[in-house]
Design a protein that fits this description.
Blueprint: E1 13-14, H1 19-28, E2 31-33, H2 39-57, E3 62-71, H3 75-88, H4 92-102, H5 106-110, H6 114-124, E4 128-132, H7 134-146, E5 151-155, H8 159-176
Parallel strand pairs: 1-2, 2-3, 3-4, 3-5
Helix pairs in contact: 1-2, 3-6, 4-6, 7-8
Length: 181
């Protein structure tokens, strides 16, 4: 039975990715959520953040990555679904507007990288993709764990479907893989 986390205060969470955000998280947060282009980058940010928290502030901090899940019976079906919801139905005008707020004149500023960044925002708001079969999703989660991340925030295109699939299929497999007790 879950209990409130009070030791002696509620846990503080941050999402610091900039140098200033990392500094704030290291000084004050119990958990920091990082956005990274891949697991290797997330691992580096996690290591640096933990080191900063320990060396400068004498405290421990857990670091979580972000992933979006597209799980289907075959990898081909999963990739086809990503193609459909990102490229065929994605809100490219909306993501262009978002990127222009975050990065003025984003298409010019990002050049060739604009489309891949925009597609990743549509696919999972910049999270690392876990796309494929249930086994491939679990392998991806293991990669997060093996890279030294303490956890993952997860998202889906369809949360209702995703949470059912998570509870019925992925969670038992996570337990078998040693990712959950």
């Amino acid at each position: 039975e879950p209990k409130p986390l009070q030791r002696p205060w509620p846990a503080l969470m941050s999402a610091g990715n900039s140098a200033r955000g990392q500094e704030f998280a290291a000084a004050h947060a119990d958990f920091n959520f990082v956005v990274a282009k891949d697991i290797t980058s997330a691992s580096e940010v996690a290591s640096n953040g933990r080191r900063l928290a320990k060396e400068k502030y004498q405290r421990d901090m857990q670091v979580f990555g972000q992933a979006y899940i597209v799980c289907r019976d075959t990898e081909k079906e999963a990739r086809e679904f990503v193609q459909e919801y990102v490229y065929d139905r994605g809100d490219w005008e909306g993501v262009r507007n978002l990127l222009d707020v975050l990065i003025p004149n984003s298409q010019s500023a990002l050049g060739d990288g604009w489309e891949s960044m925009a597609a990743n925002l549509i696919a999972g708001y910049g999270a690392i993709p876990l796309v494929g079969t249930a086994e491939q999703i679990i392998d991806g989660m293991l990669a997060f764990s093996n890279a030294g991340l303490d956890g993952i925030t997860l998202s889906w295109v369809n949360y209702e479907e995703g949470l059912i699939q998570f509870n019925e299929t992925l969670l038992p497999m996570m337990k078998q893989a040693g990712l959950r007790v």
